[in-house]
Amino acid sequence: MSAVLEAPPPPEVQGHLQARVLVVDDQPANTLLLGRMLAAEGYTNVVVTNDSTAVIGLQRETPFDAILLDIRMPRLDGFGVLRLLREEAGDDYVPVIVLTAQTDDDTRLRALAEGAKDFVTKPFNRAEVLNRIRNLLEVRLLHRRVREQNELLERRVRERTAELYETRLEIVRRLGKAAEYRDNETGFHIVRMSKYSELVARAMGLNDSAAELILHASPMHDIGKLGIPDGILLKPGRLEPWEWSIMKTHTEIGGEILDGHQSNLLQMAARIARAHHEKWDGTGYPRGFKDKEIPLEARIVAVADVFDALTSRRPYKEPWSVEASLDEIRRLAGTHFDPAVVKAFLGVVPKVMEIRERYVEPEPEPVPLTF
Questions:
Q1: Is 283 exposed, middle or buried (0-12, 13-18, 19+ CB in 10 A)?
Q2: Nearest one of 326, 344, 342, 322 to 334, comparing CA atoms
Q3: What is the count of structural domains for the chain?
Q4: Residue 142's pLDDT is what?
Q5: Residue 259 to residues 223, 237, 270, 286: CA-CA distances in angstroms?
Q6: 68 and 211 housed in the same domain
Q7: Residue 317 counted as domain residue
Q8: Could you write out the DSSP letters of every residue in 162-207?
Q9: Range of the domain at 217
């Protein structure tokens, strides 16, 4: 005994039959006929309405893959529905077949101008209606696939861009840590200093993008110390004049390390590395810039860096108190520091203290005695 098994329809046919179809006609007999016709053909998601004003609400709930729309209807005619659908869809494809007993060119041209994609003339032929619906759905489904593919590609590009940016930031952070560790400092210094810098940038009215750029660029301010000999960089006592001359070159070395890349991040980092030891009165180094010749980001980092250095323990000094450090920052406004930056810094001291407490230096572990 044998049985004939009917093969399932191919995926593209299944896709058509599962499409969401709306039938709009003020005559219940027409919507009933079209609904039954589509159901008999195998369509499983057909909605009918005799109220043209309900179309936009239904479309907003779940957009339709095909809309069969009568023209002559009370309250809101088919042209009005087409206009609303076009406004609602934006750049999406509006899949409308107009049902009309009018065959004049004016009606057809107006419907096309309002966004209709095809026509079916009443009284309609069953095979013609089904073929026109199928053709419209092929275009609709192709449009959807192209759109989904574009969205997928855009999402992958965004993810890849974010991954590359995060990788770049991680390299920046690690380079900054390398410079700090080499100078007998911990990585907490650059975390605190960079967050202080971001706070001050926002207090001075810089937008989110610029403030975040300072946050991520400032950790590399001392990267040039990688090029300073250990005998000078790690010398516990006062530097000789010739040694100090070499030490000051870390600003130019840092600028050269970071220069020459189109990235806004590295360009800002290069400016900070070169200019964070310049002084408002022109007595700083390496170029003796003064006033607003010094890039704003470098002026901001200078204050944040000095405050954190003053309040931190170093092998060669005990930490200053917060009060004494703030007094020193105030005293140096107008000579070492930009007065506007100092004012902004003093205005965010409570938040600075929150950061300082959150990223406190770990206590040094005791060295075990061996006998």
A1: exposed
A2: 342
A3: 2
A4: 81
A5: 12, 32, 6, 16
A6: no
A7: yes
A8: HHHHHHHHHHHHHHHHHHHHHTT--HHHHHHHHHHHHHHHHHTT--
A9: 183-358
Decide if 131 is inside a domain. Answer: yes
**Token pair listed for 69:** 């729309």
| Residue carrying the six token digits 């170029």 | 287
125 and 202 in one domain?
Answer: no
Name beta bridge partners: 47.
22
Question: Which tokens is 143 given?
Answer: 């449009």
CA distances from 362 to 185, 351, 357 (A): 12, 20, 11
In the structure encoding, which two tokens stand for residue 252, read together?
């130019």
Burial class (CB in 10 A: 0-12, 13-18, 19+), 95: buried
In the chain, where does DSSP find H-type helix?
11-17, 28-41, 55-61, 78-89, 105-114, 126-182, 187-203, 208-217, 230-233, 241-247, 250-258, 264-275, 296-310, 322-331, 339-347, 349-358
Is residue 281 assigned to a domain? yes
Question: Which residues of the chain carry a pLDDT beneath 50?
Answer: 1-13, 367, 371
Last residue of a domain, which of 152, 170, 202?
A: 152
Q: Which two tokens stand for residue 2?
A: 């044998």
pLDDT for residue 125: 81
| pLDDT, position 366 | 52
148 with 210, same domain? Answer: no
What are the angstrom distances between the C-alpha of 268 and each of 102, 113, 217, 297, 323?
68, 52, 6, 8, 31
Domain boundary residue, one of 111, 132, 152: 152
